[in-house]
Amino acid sequence: MTLKVFQCKECGSTVFPARYVCFGCGGAEWRERVAERGTIDELTTVRRRIGAQDGSDVLLASVTTDAGPIVIARLERAMRAGDAVRLAIDEQNRVLALPIA
Known about the structure:
- This protein has 101 residues and is mainly beta.
- 0% of the residues lie in helices and 47% in strands.
């Protein structure tokens, strides 16, 4: 699945996740935009997750999408700040940041 962000029809501000009211102008009408790519800003590793079945580490990154909003995404492997990624949604509705080959 593709990641969708939301653009205010009145002022053009783009947000994720969806909101009832635009923080920029107070507008309440949105259009969906696809956010296919982004750039990694920061990374972190979540260790020893309580209740996790496999107990493995999870790599997370804050990613600035080409559409504008910043999202928190899972990584498949270690990457670096500044790396370009392709964004997707998995079957559990998690945002994924995938390396661009």
